[in-house]
Amino acid sequence: MKNVELYKEVHESNEFYGNGGALKFHLKFIQDLIEDTKPRTLLDYGCGKGSQYLEQNIHNLWGGLMPSLYDPAIPMFSELPDEQFDGVICVDVMEHIPEDEINMALLDIFERATRFVFLGISTEPAKTILPDGTNAHCTIKDTDWWQRKIFDINRGKLYTHLHTYGNYNDYRIYYEDHYLEHLWLYNE
């Protein structure tokens, strides 16, 4: 990943950056998904510093199901597990990945999930500017663009929830490349 070194710098210089704060906006959705699918294993792909679990114990809302943690910019979580999980959650991550690396990241996610994937993706510029002067959200796309990417990569036709927020606010649920449900939230 091209920007990993820049994110390492930001994490090191700002103790509050990457503390999992964006997860709170998705908790109810993820909690419902967990209750629906009853996973035994989870992966948080792009967990940041992991304090949402290690300090705030947010996973207790999910019956104590502690996810495996992965974030390439955090040394203790920088190894992507080479195994499958019942569910993979990825919140406030995809928009940080350069567009030409999105397919590889989605492939990593979908190859590791056996029951579901939850994607929470911001669709507006970040407040954070990286040390090279670029915006931390380098891939800002609308919900339809993300949907096409999901359909291209989701070869296993996994149950997938997509929550976009920011300039495009939407919630879509997919299975076998079809909408199961479209919870239109609002667009500004």
Primary descriptors:
seven-stranded mixed beta sheet; single chain; 25% helix; disordered C terminus; alpha/beta; Rossmann fold
Describe the structure.
The protein is of the alpha/beta class and 188 residues long. It has a single domain, classed as Rossmann fold (3-Layer(aba) Sandwich), CATH 3.40.50. The chain contains five helices and seven strands. A seven-stranded mixed β-sheet has the order 2-1-3-4-5-6-7, with helices on both faces. A hairpin with a 2-residue loop joins strand 6 and strand 7. Helix 4 crosses helix 5. The chain starts with a helix and ends with a strand.
Topology:
Layout: H1 4-13, H2 27-37, E1 42-45, H3 51-54, E2 68-70, E3 85-91, H4 102-112, E4 113-122, H5 143-153, E5 159-165, E6 168-175, E7 178-187
Parallel strand pairs: 1-2, 1-3, 3-4, 4-5
Antiparallel strand pairs: 5-6, 6-7
Number of helical elements: 5
Alpha-carbon distance between the two ends: 32 Å
Task: Classify the beta-strand content into a percent band.
Answer: 25-35%
Q: What value does the average pLDDT take?
A: 89
Radius of gyration: 15 Å
Estimated structural class: alpha/beta
How are the strands ordered across the major sheet? 2-1-3-4-5-6-7
Helix proportion range: 25-40%
**Poorly predicted tracts of residues:** 184-188
Major pleated sheet: 7 strands, mixed
- The total of beta strands comes to 7
**CATH class wording:** Alpha Beta
Shape: globular
Q: Specify the oligomeric state.
A: single chain
Domain module tally: 1
Order of helices and strands: HHEHEEHEHEEE
